[in-house]
Amino acid sequence: MARVLVTGGSGYIGSHTLVELIADGFEALSVDNGIRSHVSAIDGVRAITGRDVTNHGVDLRDFAATDDVFASAGPIDAVIHFAAFKSVPESVREPLLYFENNIGSLVNVLRAVQKHNVPHVVFSSSCSVYGNIAKLPVTEDTALQEPESPYARTKQMGEQMLQDIARVSRTTFISLRYFNPVGAHESGLLGEMPFGGPENLVPAITQTGIGRRGQLVVYGGDYATRDGTCLRDYVHVSDIARAHVDAVRYLMDGRNEHGHEIFNLGSGIGVTVLEAIAAFERATGVALDYRIGPRRPGDVEAIYAENTRARERFGWHPERDVNVMMSTAWAWEQKLAERAAHGQLQD
User: Fold this and answer.
1) What is the pLDDT of residues 225-268, one digit of tens each?
2) Nearest 5 degrees, angle CA 291-CA 127-CA 93?
3) In whole angstroms, what is the distance from residue 133 CA to residue 70 CA?
4) Could you tell me the fold of the domain covering 3-341?
5) Residue 49: is it exposed, middle or buried by C-beta count within 10 angstroms (0-12/13-18/19+)?
6) Is 178 a catalytic residue?
7) Which candidate in 151, 219, 223, 234 is catalytic?
8) CA-closest candidate to residue 16, choices 183, 202, 159, 168
9) Which of 30, 82, 223, 326 could pair with 280 in a Cys bridge, judged by C-beta atoms 3.0 to 4.6 Å apart?
10) Do 41 and 185 meet the contact criterion of CB atoms below 8 Å apart?
């Protein structure tokens, strides 16, 4: 049984990826110190899969502790690296925090990968690396623009690091540039648990719909899009998680042509903020109270993907549409409200 180490395994995408790995026959291990995640997500993984998952509560900025995980875990066939801070507004306010955490942890993971001869690494990148693009959809060959936030810059830097290391390493690398992961596992046992006030659109929508927060603010109504609001490419989190398993298989099968390859993970469909709100209202029957506010620093105006490369190289395609994204996100929000009412929510 091949063994895959997932950093950030208690996080939103990381926990869903643990589920997909186990379903595909892998032994999955997690590293997550719980600073920006909830360890209860591992319980959700266990409940869905019926399998125990070991989580190492290690801060990856500490190389000695990181190295100990690799040494104690035994042979590792692949690493999927999610662990990073991901708030665009926070990164604008505290860029040094993001450079220290996102780049520092990546450096330590790569040092451990090299020391312990891990053959394959899949890196959690982001569509934010593209910046503001004039021609849409973006392909993997679209020239990267100046990043709009320090968060995006850390993803650009991470990809560049892998490119340089791949030239001199036997390890093979994939960077997955995914667009906007949303929704929750169809079981209702796993979903997004944002810290503080959510800064991503869909959890902000569901929290408004259930009454956990007041009026929803749409950041900017004067963009050059069809309704003036930002345009994004939304993909169900389980589809994103599945792509990581496909990427690991692709590398293990030796189908890669280069030491570092890049893939877009998007639906290929652009959806504006107002269209996303309308989709939620249709899927749930819940009317949202919202208003148009000022633009938010760090936001890109519009972006959506060309995903042909992922389709052709490892057969990935998103299976769940925006209605499933919104209905599963809403079911998860209702589950969280039920757990909170019974005092069952724990960090």
Assistant:
1) 999 999 999 999 999 999 999 999 999 999 999 999 999 999 99
2) 60
3) 39
4) Rossmann fold (3.40.50)
5) middle
6) no
7) 151
8) 183
9) 326
10) no
